[in-house]
Design brief:
Elements: H1 2-22, H2 34-40, E1 47-55, E2 58-67, E3 70-77, E4 80-87, E5 91-96, E6 99-104, H3 105-128, H4 138-175, H5 179-182, E7 183-187, E8 191-196, H6 198-212, H7 216-229, H8 234-253, E9 256-262, E10 265-272, E11 285-294, E12 299-308, E13 315-322, E14 325-332, E15 335-344, E16 347-357, E17 360-368, E18 371-376, E19 379-387, E20 393-401, E21 406-416, E22 419-426, E23 433-441, E24 453-455, H9 458-472
Parallel strand pairs: 6-24
Antiparallel strand pairs: 1-2, 1-23, 2-3, 3-4, 4-5, 5-6, 7-8, 8-9, 9-10, 10-11, 11-12, 12-13, 13-14, 14-15, 15-16, 16-17, 17-18, 18-19, 19-20, 20-21, 21-22, 22-23
Amino acid sequence: MKKLLSCLLAAAMLFTMASAIAAEPFEPIERNNALVKFLNETDTKTKDIALQLQFGDDVADLVLRAEGDNFHVVARDNGTQKGHLQLTPEALFVTSNGSVKQLKYATVVAFMQDIVKTADALVNEAIDSIPQQEVPSEAELAAAAAKAEVIASMAAAQQQADAATLFSAGASFASKFKAENILDVKENDDSLEISLRSEAYASALADAIDDLMLDPALAELVDRKAAATGGKTFASIQKDWIVNREATLEAIRTIQSTDLIEDGHWKSHFQIGEKTEEEKDNEVLVCDVDTWINDDADAAEMVLNLGFQDADPLMVYEMAVNPSRFWEKVTAQNSEAEIRYDIEEGRLSGGFVKAVVEGNEELYAEFSPDYMYMKGANGGFFSSVRETWTGKIRYELVAETAQGAEASMTVDFYEDGDSLVCELRTGESDQSLMFKLSRIDRIDIEDLSDAENVELTEETLKAEFENILKTVLPAQTTNP
């Protein structure tokens, strides 16, 4: 009985929502596919639509029929009727153990409204149970509201003040870096060269940070945030800057940075660090970037090398893009990652992905609109879609473990007489599992609304609902 009531309630609420949605003026959506064509070609006066599941000789189906304002769903097993559900504008009917049960939508609505009223009454009862002396007066509530409003106003004002502090500090910091002071620019007819004056840049940075370390408004903001989050105080930041100031500026003075732009070629060189006679073990970090841009072909290429001077690169990044392809590759010593997308008429048409870690290929995958192949450390799989010689649309999937064991699955979609068929087969079985949407000769379907039935009342629903609650609430609960 509980399962039956659960099904009835779910179906009734679903039908109610569907009716409300159907009442809205939606524009029709046209879909030109096999399913719509199949349904449009079905003569509902002589045929029923059946959703069928077939495995070997066993067939289970749901027969669907819309007739006037009624909608029928009949469940059958090898042609024998096992259940019948009927939807009408006023109620839902279902057969159970040879009898017909009726559930009116109005009953469901009243039942749900009663639950809401009961919950509301319980809340009011809980409120009324609070001792009068513990209930805040209107004056106390007004004072609490006013206090909350003042606190919110103060928080907003503090946020605005903090934003002004950060903006002022940022503007002051940026003002120290004037392009004419820290950059050398050489412009010729067809080229532009820009280089950094590292000594001037170090001096500007020192002045900018020194000013920040003396900003009382910024100090107050940092200390307040540190107290709230447990971060560094302004004093500890000042101490770190004093300790590391000269070493930081000395490193910055070793920077060499140049950019050369000419005829679609942008070449950038950056290095930091310096080897001296006294400290020959010092490392010089170097980053070189070469970029080629072809406006006429809408194409670009870039190579970035990062590493130490006079040594193999730590990392190489390569990229190429044009209207028909995107490719990029990252190499870090014995590891690499590579990806390529092929594009046709603005759509992805294929490509591959590869990942190598410490010389071992961990992942390789390639794909196109009609196949995908993937191989990893623990196995791989291949999938494809094609049209067979007999006109079936066939999806195939083959999976292989690292030990060489294989498993396969084939899914065929096709039309067979009066059926649209989805047939599934595995490599481990000779039998197939078939899902069908079929036209069948009309079957005898009883009008359950005319049959003698038992109406499920609101009291019945309440009783069953209480039984359900008793099964999920603790055993000591005695008042459902």
